[in-house]
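User: Hi! I'm working on a homework problem where we have to compare a predicted structure to a textbook description. Could you give me the structure for the chain below?
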Amino acid sequence: MARSPIRRAAAHACVLLLAAGGLARAAEEPSEPAAESARPARAAAVGTGVDDGGVPTYVLSFYYPWYGTPSGPAGQWVHWDPASPTFVAKHTPVLGHYDSLGHYDSLDPHVITQHIRWAQDAGIDGFIVSWWGQRTFEDRAFRRILDQAQRLGLLITVYYETASPPTREQVLDDFRYLLDTCAASPAFLKVHGHPVLFVYGRVVNEQIRPADMAWVLDTLAGEGKRILVIAEGLRPELLDTYDGLHIYHVAGLAEEAVAARYREISALARARGKIFAATVMPGYDNTEVRDAGIQVLREGGHYYRKSWTAALESAPQWVLITSFNEWHAATQIEPSLQYGDQYLGITGHFARRFKGAAAEAQPEAAAPCVAPEALQPSGQAHSADGTVTLSWNPVEDAALVYYDVRLDDGSQDRYRDPRFVTCPEDNAYYCENLVPGPAIEGVPVRPGRHYRFQVIPIFTPPRKPCRGETSFSVRLAPPP
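Assistant: Happy to help. Predicted structure tokens:
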């Protein structure tokens, strides 16, 4: 069952106090509890440091897979329900926060595909997907998201969250489960071949002691499962246990203090060969799901731009966006009736700026994508037997996984080749032809139709910033 947004909002408030270290607080906020005094350093078997020059430059967004509808695959309302008071207050067209996809279902492959394409168009490299345990609703959605991400070229990892304190044995079991069932996917986020997991602040600061997490990671290392774990919190001592640091949100904290703390932690992480991920957000408002909530106005996009500027000034390896679609706290950047695609546009601008600066610092790190014209797709103009051959120039690259081949004549009938077709679970609309290439023979066509032919090389890891897509139209007709 999906967790209550009220419970999660309360947890955010706790993390705000525990994770932000020396950040200045708003006047009404209580002072931060004292840090735990003795924290054991993690054994060298795991997380011995990440080469700063070899860490890919990524823009990642927190993503929430916990929405369901009666008409969708979930079969019921999950997390948003028009009958609930908080939904009426927060998610109606009157206030304009309502998502442009309508009441969507996180299990619906149409929705997942659209979200991935929006993210890619905005320069987002991957989703950090909220995950609440094995065989939960979010776990079911995560697998569908991972499948779609592998087909479309987006990176995916989990945000490890728990409603009740787990034992270290439970954390170990959960991590094993993720590594054994998901991490082999080419779409699962990795650095130097090691899967990357993010851990929410409630787990880091309240539920699992550093010594217990070190035991979990060292146990996995002894099994040959080396992973990198990015903890929520900006306390330097966390770097003794974890491979990197981030914070989920900075709502209610002084902007100047956030910028200064980012710079400080970024420098400390780099000095220790660890990862620092700076967080940006468009605003924040959980006042309608929590009595003593926090509201940070969007200022017409100005707050989001200031947030990006502060993050980039700290020279992080990664930038994290809170969030793609967390509607309960109004941090979403996905299109809505009120904002349109304004926040995707702002994201794209700063993502290009971030990656451009990183490319200047490390020009050899990123491989270029395939130029569309290099593929030169072609199809036969005439057919005697009702079939044609589609062909294109091969891509000589070891990172190529397959070619996504699409052919349609503008009708509802999309070409699905039984030799290559792959379909999302429980949905045939988004079937795709995954071809080793560089040609398909015996493609059935209808005489006199005008066809659109597309070839999209899919790489692992995905090439940035473009997807190497091209198109070619040809009129197919029988010989005279």
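For your comparison, note the following. The longest strand covers residues 449-459. The chain has two domains: 5-361, 372-476. Good luck with the assignment!
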